[in-house]
Amino acid sequence: MVKKFKGSYISYIFIFFFFFFCMAAFSSVLSVYLTGLGISVVHMSRIISAGSLFAFVISPVTGYICDRTGKPRLVCGVMMITLGIFSVFFALTKNVLLLFTLNGLTMSFIHAVQPSCERLAGASRFRYGILRVWGTIGYAVGAQFSGLVIEKLPAMWLFGSVLAAALICALGFAGANDPIIPEDAAPSGEKEKVKLSSFLSNRYYLLFLLITVLFWGSSGANMTYVPVLLSHLGVATGRIGTVIFLSTLVEIPLILFSNKFMDRFNGKTLIYFACGLTLAEFLVYALASSAFVVMSTVVLLKAIATTTYVMIQLKVVRNLVSPTLTTTALSLIGTCNSVGTIILQNVGGYLTEAFGVQRFYLVLSGIIVVTILITSFLKVSNREKVFS
Q1: Cβ-count burial of 42 within 10 angstroms (0-12 exposed, 13-18 middle, 19+ buried)?
Q2: Of 261, 7, 21, 258, which Cα lies nearest the Cα of 124?
Q3: Given CA atoms 107, 108, 113, 118 in this order, what sign does their dihedral have?
């Protein structure tokens, strides 16, 4: 059985389904959970931003260790078990400082493991879409599960499930194969040394970092404030989980058929697509007064834009950076994203308390417009076929 499990499709299902289940179960209604404890919106924003703050250090260190040691599965497996334990402790406290620290550790570990998951999906013997789709299903189930549990059961049921899912995900990492690296990835067949200075000399990679900081910072704030907006419009917590569940299911055809379009269009065109959808989404949130309209927009647009951008990151990095440095490059992107997320989540807390959550979405809309303008200066080739 061990031999059959090693490198099998089921081992990858364990990784992607349960990794994204952990992400959704812990984070999708976290803002609602925290405000339900009596924590103010400003403190809630600070607690949630801790994940990005901690990830600023943990993500690049993890990426560096994975590329340097050549053992990403071992590193990620250990981190999954650890973050599962952190999530249980998170359920046991109401202290703001402890909540800040434990959320920071748990979410930063999730952020740090995600680049390795994406790399596994894009560099395994299985096609990207048929692996990554299990992440979509896992996230959808986790979001629905978290909304129902927070509404009906003690919090420990939710955060204990994160530990259980993390253990199964770690088992998947143990059974999967290491990413396949092309034979010509490094000169003379030797593994390229990880040099952070090589990224600093690539101006288009640096420009893509800036674009991603703006886009992902806005999207990260959106992840936090969509449940707050829905709650403000009178939507029950359980129904919020259902809305996020349905929005995630919309990703399935996008991921399954990613090989039909992701390698066909260049990264710049795809960024315009993701930003256009996000701008439309934010404007609806800013201007609509109907809960039904907002819920419909969440279902139709939210997950499509962010999922497309996750794939864009992998595509652009593979076309700008050596394959032997992919994990480090993706981790550096995750680190820079943390800057935008930290700023916008904390600014969002003050703006939401002062002017309301819908006014904050006008600010996010303006940031996406700036992102579109900056993207016009980006140049990236389309030579690497990642999703076929």
Answers
A1: middle
A2: 7
A3: positive
Name the nearest CA neighbour of 261 among 207, 307, 322. 307
Per-residue pLDDT of 196-248, as tens digits, reads 556 667 788 889 889 988 998 888 888 878 888 888 888 876 677 778 778 87
The long-range contacts involving 93-99, CB below 8 angstroms and separated by at least 24 positions, are 94/37, 96/39, 96/43, 96/46, 96/47, 99/34, 99/39, 99/47
Residues 137-188 pLDDT 10s: 898 888 888 888 887 888 888 999 999 999 999 999 998 877 655 544 444 4
Which residues have C-beta within 8 Å of that of residue 75, sequence separation ≥ 6?
Answer: 62, 65, 66, 69, 116
Which residue has 């609602």 as its token pair?
Answer: 32
Amino acid type, 347: V
Contacts 24+ apart (CB under 8 A), 165-168: 165/18, 165/19, 165/21, 165/22, 165/25, 165/84, 166/18, 166/22, 166/80, 166/81, 166/83, 166/84, 166/87, 167/80, 167/81, 167/84, 168/14, 168/18
- How far CA 31 is from CA of 110, 229, 267, 315, 330, in Å, comes to 17, 11, 33, 32, 27
Type of residue found at 180: I
**DSSP label of 190:** P
Q: Which amino acid is at 99?
A: L
